[in-house]
UniProtKB/TrEMBL annotation, chain A:
Its main location: membrane. Residues 17-133 form the Na+/H+ antiporter MnhB subunit-related protein domain. Keywords: Cell membrane, Membrane, Transmembrane, Transmembrane helix. It holds the Pfam family MnhB. GO terms for cellular component: plasma membrane. Belongs to the CPA3 antiporters (TC 2.A.63) subunit B family. The keyword Cell membrane applies. This is Multicomponent Na+:H+ antiporter subunit B. It is found in: Cell membrane. The chain crosses the membrane at residues 12-32, 38-58, 70-92, 122-140. It comes from Natribacillus halophilus.
Automatic annotation (TrEMBL), chain B:
Its main location: membrane. The keyword Transmembrane applies. It is found in: Cell membrane. The lineage of its organism: Bacteria, Bacillati, Bacillota, Bacilli, Bacillales. It holds the Pfam family Oxidored_q2. This is Multisubunit sodium/proton antiporter, MrpC subunit. Keywords: Cell membrane, Membrane, Transmembrane, Transmembrane helix. The keyword Transmembrane applies. Belongs to the CPA3 antiporters (TC 2.A.63) subunit C family. The chain crosses the membrane at residues 6-22, 29-49, 69-92. It comes from Natribacillus halophilus.
Automatic annotation (TrEMBL), chain C:
Residues 640-705 form the MrpA C-terminal/MbhD domain. It is found in: Cell membrane; Membrane. One of its GO terms (cellular component) is plasma membrane. This is Multicomponent Na+:H+ antiporter subunit A. Residues 720-802 form the MrpA C-terminal/MbhE domain. The chain crosses the membrane at residues 6-25, 32-53, 73-101, 113-130, 136-156, 168-189, 209-234, 246-262, 274-294, 301-327, 339-364, 376-400, 430-454, 475-498, 531-549, 596-613, 633-651, 658-676, 682-700, 720-740, 779-797. Pfam families: MbhD (PF13244), MbhE (PF20501), Proton_antipo_M (PF00361), Proton_antipo_N (PF00662). Residues 68-114 form the NADH-Ubiquinone oxidoreductase (complex I) chain 5 N-terminal domain. Residues 131-422 form the NADH:quinone oxidoreductase/Mrp antiporter transmembrane domain. Coiled coil: none annotated. One of its GO terms (molecular function) is antiporter activity. Its main location: membrane.
Length: 149, 112, 807
């Protein structure tokens, strides 16, 4: 990825502000997914876009200070989460990947629905973020190395 | 309206096929992407076109759209995303290794 | 699961555990563990079933496997199966015992050897014990596989690989043919069970497919039982370790074809084709094998051809005996049933004397380091025990009293002479040729036995000829051949000990269709002054004379051509096959992506178009549809931009423009989803397009301009033609499919998802509920695909291949 070398302040401020909005939206997509348009895939891709913005603004080293993830590891965390949530079905003598939900009364929030679909979708979210970022960053790193050589 | 869309899909398929037969690796990948778009549109059209409300339970009335093709296409889009990005990286590496994206030159020796 | 099932399965189960045992106790020869299995099986079989068999009973037990297709793992034990089971396990035990001393504990891969051997034992037991032809076929091919693996056991030698491949190709070809025959039988009778087929024998006899089915089944039997001209694989199979040759390639596996013919006799027997094909093939193989054996200079080569010849003899007897099923006359039936008795008796005899001979040859090879008849000589004084055992075995094979081979050979002569009186099947005066061929082959058998005996053991012992100091083998190595040699003598002196339990039950189970109750046949060493006795005397006399003058005729050129001429066909065939496949591959595999796409596209288009056209499935949309839903004007605009952004793609020369144009197309598709109320799709499409655009830009930013397409007119025309036909076909097929869908007017399964999203999934977004709750597996595996892509990308770029490597 080309790291911005210009000192165009307007561009930076605009992109950073946008990326915060996008990030917030992505979380909304993730959590609202069960009842409104959205979900793990959409949330994950939105997050990937937001992170890509940040990498566009800063150079790789600065960006790494803000974003301290090893993205390949994120993929495996996501997979374990999704597959693990599916395994709950075993303990309840149901099929694999059976999802459960119930409504709980929680003070302050009122009646809230809690589902096993949420951790499942969260796993998908992690995988998508991880995969998209790995693909983008790997190519970017490769070009950077080549330019330095 | 269906006629219009089916014809559009046919054109997309033609363009995609033409691009697949090209010599440039990037064009082949482009062809692949065009054909996936066409397939997604085809699935949606096959299920019956409907401009009614979105498939959300609280909105749905008698004219809401069919959610099943949506779920199917969503899966297809994501898989297509994975495949396309893999193809892109493959093409990228091929170029880096062989310094060309001409498929004719990438043929290698005879009798392979 | 009955005991019989376990008898088949135990060797397979043991094959899993033997390597573990071998590793746990490296100081003990693995063979000792294996020895228990055939030993236990032979005892269990004998104790549990011998009295039942003597009473003429049978046992059937069925375990369903694929009951819908009538494929059941059914086992059926009658006299014939019992005889073979004892043969397989009994000889198996002796061979394992022999192999313990034959194969060196340190040098050889013992675990592999015994796993293959156990697999063979299990598969062979499966062949002879099952009643279902499909199960029989599966085990049949498993025996071929085990045989191939064992022939190639010393795979460092090229000859081993050649022999293994040859045996595999020929026997598997036969196996396929046999499977085809079984399918035809299934078409005729509607069952895969042999017993039920026998019940339907009238249907089979009068069916037009009778002859093809018979020939196909016989191909399987003939390739396995090395009948002419398929015998060529056996001499090359002699590259296997000697215990394997003794076991698979003389005593058991090559007799699977005999078993099959015997088993199928109630189905096909009684027809003249069956009678003549088997009789002539058998006699010719007998003769050809004997002549070829005479020319061999390698001890194992002699034994290989002699096995071919003896199997031909048994085959001929089975053919002759099938006449009993046609005869209808009690006297004739009893007379020709005698041939089957001889066949069964000789089957046992052959296993005993040939097994012991193979083992003895192995000992000679083991102790002297050579099997070449021209180098060997004078071993009588050095290896007295080996000498005695081989003398017994060779005498039995040559047909000298009082050994068991003499009795069966005399009976064979008698059966062949009786054939001349056959009143049907077009037998005429010329039939005298049958006993003459049989007699001549016996003379030659006598001569090559004499050769083996004389060249190996007689003459002067010359120390110079051997690499090592020759001495008698260890007692362990000698034990198995001695036991078999004792059997040869015992069966010669008291031939009737097995009649009641083995021979008579197997004969009755082969000849189920005869009208009379067959009596147990009385086997005796002394037949009285019959014609067969004079024939035997003639064999010995002519044989001795020919042997005395052997220095004259061994100089003939034909005598020195060791390699069988039939090999020409095989060698040429393999060469041509390889060249042909290479040529076809060269034509088709151009290494051009475009060509491969063209093959696929043209094929798909042609297939679909022709099929749709022929079944008249091309339809237009119903008349009303186009008008009921008016196309809004903006729709034309959307489609125009959508199609337009795609249509410019082939003309773009700049990379960046190309990528941007693809992006426009993606955004238009997203808009299309929005128009038709698919918010999830529109969002996903939008985001995917964004990310892909970034990836595309990253990857292709620095590359030079795109490769220009060649300007050649034919190139462009072909591309446009294919592209246009694909597009047209897609449009027409989708319109027809849509019209069909409206015609059928079915209820969509989507209703289930719409109704159950809230009650079962607890969510209001039906698409997401479908993905997460109802079709969770799809979604998880999709995530897995993405994970794999990411891994592949890392592998491709971070752990890159350097240029010039063959990727």
């Amino acid at each position: 990825m080309r790291y911005s070398r210009s000192h165009d302040v307007m561009q930076r401020v605009l992109l950073i502000t946008t990326s915060y909005f996008v990030l917030a939206y992505s979380l909304y997509f993730l959590f609202a997914g069960h009842n409104n348009p959205g979900g793990g895939f959409i949330g994950g891709l939105t997050t990937a876009c937001a992170l890509a913005f940040i990498y566009l603004v800063f150079d790789r080293d600065t960006a790494n200070e803000y974003i301290r993830f090893t993205f390949p590891a994120l993929i495996s965390i996501g997979l374990v989460l999704s597959l693990g949530t599916g395994a709950i079905g075993f303990f309840a003598n149901d099929n694999y990947l059976t999802q459960y939900f119930d409504y709980f009364e929680i003070p302050f929030f009122g009646e809230v629905e809690l589902t096993t679909a949420l951790p499942f979708d969260l796993g998908i979210y992690f995988v998508v973020v991880g995969a998209a970022m790995v693909i983008m960053l790997t190519i970017a790193d490769d070009e950077k190395e080549e330019n330095e050589n | 309206m269906e006629y219009l869309i089916f014809i559009a899909i046919g054109v997309l398929f033609s363009v995609g096929t033409y691009l697949l037969l090209c010599r440039s690796l990037l064009k082949v990948i482009g062809g692949f992407m065009v054909i996936s778009h066409a397939v997604h549109m085809l699935i949606l059209t096959m299920a019956g076109l409907n401009t009614g409300s979105a498939p959300l339970v609280d909105l749905s009335g008698s004219d809401s759209t069919d959610p099943l093709p949506h779920a199917v296409i969503l899966t297809a889009i994501v898989i297509g995303f994975g495949l396309t990005s893999f193809l892109i990286v493959l093409a990228y590496r091929t170029y880096k290794a062989h310094k060309t994206d001409d498929l004719e030159k990438l043929r290698g020796a005879d009798n392979e | 699961m009955s005991l019989l099932h376990w008898i088949i399965l135990i060797p397979f189960l043991a094959a899993f555990f033997i390597p573990l045992l071998g590793r746990m106790f490296p100081r003990i020869h693995t063979g000792w563990f294996v020895l228990f299995i055939p030993l236990a099986l032979v005892m269990v079989t004998w104790i549990s079933y011998s009295s039942l068999m003597a009473d003429g009973e049978t046992i059937l037990s069925i375990v369903p496997w694929v009951p819908m297709l009538d494929i059941n793992f059914s086992v059926y034990l009658d006299g014939l199966s019992f005889l073979f089971t004892l043969l397989i396990t009994g000889i198996g035990a002796l061979v394992v015992l022999y192999s313990i001393y034959y194969l060196d504990k340190k040098k050889e891969r013992l675990q592999d050897f015994y796993v293959y051997l156990l697999m063979f034992i299990g598969a062979m037991l499966g062949v002879v014990l099952t009643d279902n032809v499909i199960v029989l076929y599966v085990f049949w091919e498993l025996t071929s596989l085990a045989s191939t693996l064992l022939i190639g056991f010393w795979f460092i030698r090229d000859k081993s690989i050649f022999g293994a491949q040859k045996s595999m190709l020929i026997t598997v070809f036969g196996g396929f043919a046999m499977l085809g025959g079984f399918m035809l039988l299934y078409i005729m009778t509607g069952t895969f069970s042999i017993r039920e087929m026998i019940g339907d024998v009238d249907v089979i006899m009068n069916h037009p497919m009778f002859l093809p089915a018979m020939i196909l089944v016989l191909l399987g039997a003939f390739t396995k039982s090395v009948q002419f001209p398929f015998h060529i694989w056996l001499p090359d199979a002699m590259e296997a370790p000697t215990p394997v040759s003794a076991y698979l390639h003389s005593a058991t596996m090559v007799k699977a074809g005999i078993y099959l013919v015997a088993r199928m006799t109630p189905i096909f027997g009684g027809s003249s084709e069956w009678f003549w094909i088997i009789l002539i093939t058998g006699l010719f193989t007998l003769f050809w094998g004997a002549i070829s054996a005479l020319r061999q200079k390698d001890l194992k080569g002699v034994l290989a051809f002699s096995t071919i010849s003896q199997l031909g003899l048994i085959m001929a007897l089975l053919g002759a005996g099938s006449a009993a099923l046609y005869a209808q006359d009690p006297d004739l039936e009893v007379m020709y049933a005698g041939a089957i008795v001889t066949a069964m008796f000789h089957l046992i005899n052959h296993s005993t004397f040939k097994g012991s001979l193979f083992m003895v040859v192995g000992i000679v090879d083991h102790e002297t380091g050579t099997r070449n008849l021209q180098k060997l000589g004078g071993l009588m004084a050095v290896m007295p025990v080996t000498f005695t055992v081989s003398a017994v075995g060779l005498a039995a094979m040559a047909g000298i009293p009082p050994f068991n081979g003499f009795i069966s050979k005399e009976m064979f002569f008698a059966n062949m002479v009786e054939l001349m009186e056959l009143p049907f099947f077009g037998m005429g005066d010329w039939a005298i040729i049958i006993p003459i061929v049989a007699w001549t082959a016996s003379v030659i058998t006598f001569i090559y036995c004499a050769f083996m005996f004389y060249k190996t053991f007689m003459g002067k012992y010359d120390r110079q000829n051997y690499w090592v100091d020759v001495h008698e083998a260890s007692p362990g190595l000698l034990l198995s051949p001695i036991l078999l040699g004792i059997l040869v003598i015992v069966l010669g002196l008291f031939p009737n000990i097995l009649t009641q339990t083995l021979i008579h039950p197997s004969v009755t189970s082969i000849l189920t269709g005869v009208s009379v109750e067959l009596e147990p046949y009385n086997l005796t060493l002394w037949h009285g002054f019959e014609i067969e006795l004079f024939m035997s005397i003639g064999v010995v006399a002519v044989g001795v004379i020919a042997f005395l003058y052997h220095r004259k005729w061994t100089r003939w050129e034909i005598y020195n051509k060791e390699r069988d001429v039939m090999n020409l066909f095989y060698d040429q065939g393999i060469d041509k096959l390889q060249d042909g496949s290479a040529a076809i591959t060269r034509v088709q595999m151009t290494g051009r992506l475009r060509d491969y796409f063209m093959y696929m596209l043209v094929f798909i288009v042609a297939l679909l178009a022709v099929t749709m056209w022929r079944s008249g499935q091309f339809q237009a949309l119903p008349e009303g549809l186009a008008t009921t839903m008016d196309t809004p004007l903006y729709m034309y605009g959307v489609m125009l931009i959508l199609v337009g952004s795609a249509a410019v793609l082939p003309f773009i020369q700049s990379r960046i423009t190309f990528i941007i144009s693809i992006g426009v197309l993606g955004l238009m598709v997203s808009l299309f989803f929005t128009i038709f109320s698919a918010p999830d799709l529109a969002l996903t499409q939008l985001l995917v397009e964004t990310v892909l655009l970034i990836v595309l830009m990253l990857a292709f930013r620095h590359l030079p301009e795109m490769t220009k397409e060649p300007k050649s007119r034919s190139y462009t025309t072909v591309n446009v033609l294919i592209a246009a036909s694909v597009g047209a076909l897609v449009t027409m097929v989708s319109i027809s499919a849509y019209a069909l869908r409206l015609d059928l007017d079915f209820t969509a399964i989507s209703d289930f998802f719409i109704e159950n999203a809230v009650p079962l999934g607890g969510g209001y977004n039906i698409v997401n509920v479908t993905l997460v709750d109802f079709r969770g597996f799809d979604t998880v595996l999709e995530a897995l695909v993405l994970g794999i892509v990411a891994l592949a990308v890392i592998m491709l770029i971070k752990h890159r291949f350097k240029g010039g490597e063959d990727i």
